[in-house]
Every structure is written in structure tokens, then in C-alpha cells.
């Protein structure tokens, strides 16, 4: 367990974790159930993990194994113990070992092989009384423990492992190219807007210069008119052909 980042030694030393292991062929089903009942009386646990349940099928019939497992899980529930069981099976549905109806939550782990590699997937087949996702997740075992990773679901189907990484890199590059195109187009439009603003400013300056020129021409014309009138001895308000007395 330490190899995947789970150090259980402190819980063992504190007396909070007890491990009991026995070969499936060491006991009969009834003896196995009696031993488990004795361990429950001795330790009074709050949580029980039953590993390797499918190995009990070596020898007895399916009906006998199913009956024993049903009695075991019933024993856990009547004592208020939260239980977790692992079953290795080739079946993908929740009828494995015939005890699925007694499970509140059923998780399916599956290995898939593609592109020369095996990847691990996790499904939530059911979780009684609680909302849960219907999407598959990829999980990896790292030195920091188990990590869940979102799989890629696209037009070409579901991708995991290196295929998912390759697709993510391709999408990231495409996204960066789109961002670069958008930024380039934005710079071009801003440059056009700045050029239009400059052109508008030039036109406004030219209009102002034309207005000032017209004002100057009108003022010069008035000055010239007054100068001519003074030269001809014309009183203000009189026509040019009226002469002074």
C-alpha cells in the first residue's frame, strides 16, 4: 500500500486497523462465516473490507457462495458496520456473485487495451439514494495515491491514456492557434480604427481651417467695403451713386 502513497502502519500500531487473511481453501463456507463473526465480536469494527470474494468460488457451488455472502453482508448490516467488498469477475454488470441487490453502491473497474497500452477505467453502476455521474472516469495509480482523470469523449469516441494526452495536446494547439488568429485580427481592426480616427481628426481640422478661412475672407471683404466707402465719401447706409453735398 505504501507503493501507491497509502501508509497504513500508524493505524495498525494504534490498534485501529486489523488485517485477517486466510486462503479460500483453508475453511469451509460455514467455518469462514463463523470466523468472521468471531472477529466482529472481538474487535467490534465500524468498517469492514472484504477482499478477494470471488476466490470463495473455488470448490463450492455458486448457490452456496451466494448464500454465504448474503448472510455475511446481512451480519454486517445488522451490526451497523459499513462494509466494502471487492470481486474479480469477467462480468461487467451488477449481477456478479448474485449479491448486487444487497450493495448500496456498486463501482466497476475495467481494464481497456488500446494503442499498445492498458488503461484503467471506473464506472458507477449504481449508488442507491444518492445522485451520481453516469460518465466513465480513468484512474491511475501514482506515488501520491489514486488519481481520477476525465476521459476524452468526442466525435471519434472515448480516448484514454496516451491517446487522450495526444488529443488534449492537439486541442490545446488548435485553441492557441485560434487565440493567435483572434488576437491578430483584433490588432488589424484596432489599427484600422486608429487610422479612421486619425483620418476623421484630419478632416475635422480641415473643416475648421475652411471655416476660419471663410471668416477671414468675410472680414477682409467688410474691411475692403468700408475702405472703398471712405474713399468715395459715402455715408454709412447710402448707395454709392449718392454724392455728398
Blueprint (SSEs and pairs):
Blueprint: H1 9-13, H2 29-43, E1 47-50, H3 62-78, E2 82-85, E3 105-114, E4 117-127, E5 137-142, E6 145-150, E7 152-154, E8 157-159, H4 161-231
Describe it for me?
The chain is α+β, with helices and mostly antiparallel strands and 245 residues long. It has two domains: 2-153, Rossmann fold; 154-231. The protein contains four helices and eight strands. The strands form three sheets. A four-stranded antiparallel β-sheet has the order 3-4-5-6, with no helix packed on it. Strands 1-2 form a two-stranded parallel sheet. It has a two-stranded antiparallel sheet with strand order 7-8. The longest helix has 71 residues, at 161-231. The mean pLDDT is 80.
The helix-strand sequence is HHEHEEEEEEEH
Indicate the overall shape.
rod-shaped
> What's the N-to-C terminus distance?
130 Å
Strand order of the largest sheet: 3-4-5-6
How much strand content do the residues show?
Answer: 15-25%
Task: Identify the CATH homologous superfamily of the largest domain.
Answer: P-loop containing nucleotide triphosphate hydrolases
Global mean pLDDT: 80
Q: Structural class of the secondary structure composition?
A: alpha+beta
Spans of 5+ residues with little confidence (pLDDT < 50)?
none
* Count of individual helical segments: 4
CATH class of the largest domain: Alpha Beta
Largest sheet: 4 strands, antiparallel
Please tally the β strands and state the result.
8
| Gyration radius over CA | 45 Å
Instruction: Assign a percent range to the helix content.
Output: 40-55%
- What would the CATH topology of the largest domain be? Rossmann fold
Q: What's the domain count?
A: 2
Amino acid at each position: 500500500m505504501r507503493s501507491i502513497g497509502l501508509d497504513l502502519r500508524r493505524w495498525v500500531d494504534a490498534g485501529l486497523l486489523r488485517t485477517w487473511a486466510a486462503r479460500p481453501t483453508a475453511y469451509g463456507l460455514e467455518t469462514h462465516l463463523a470466523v468472521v463473526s468471531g472477529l466482529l465480536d472481538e474487535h467490534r469494527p465500524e468498517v469492514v473490507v472484504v477482499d478477494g470474494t470471488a476466490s470463495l468460488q473455488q470448490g463450492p457451488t455458486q448457490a452456496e457462495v451466494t448464500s454465504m455472502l448474503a448472510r455475511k453482508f446481512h451480519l454486517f448490516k445488522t451490526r451497523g458496520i459499513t462494509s466494502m467488498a471487492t470481486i474479480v469477475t469477467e462480468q461487467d454488470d451488477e449481477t456478479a456473485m448474485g449479491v448486487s441487490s444487497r450493495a448500496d453502491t456498486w463501482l466497476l473497474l475495467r481494464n481497456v487495451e488500446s494503442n499498445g497500452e492498458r488503461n484503467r477505467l471506473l464506472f458507477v453502476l449504481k449508488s442507491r439514494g444518492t445522485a451520481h455521474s453516469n460518465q466513465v472516469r480513468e484512474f491511475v495509480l501514482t506515488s501520491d495515491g489514486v488519481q481520477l482523470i476525465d476521459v476524452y469523449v468526442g466525435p471519434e469516441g472515448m480516448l484514454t491514456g496516451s491517446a487522450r494526452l495526444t488529443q488534449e495536446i492537439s486541442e490545446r494547439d488548435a485553441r492557441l492557434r485560434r487565440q493567435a488568429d483572434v488576437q491578430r485580427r483584433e490588432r488589424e481592426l484596432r489599427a484600422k480604427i486608429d487610422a479612421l480616427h486619425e483620418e476623421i481628426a484630419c478632416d475635422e481640422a480641415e473643416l475648421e481651417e475652411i471655416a476660419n478661412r471663410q471668416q477671414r475672407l468675410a472680414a477682409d471683404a467688410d474691411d475692403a467695403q468700408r475702405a472703398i466707402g471712405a474713399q468715395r465719401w459715402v455715408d454709412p447706409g447710402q448707395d454709392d451713386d449718392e454724392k455728398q453735398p
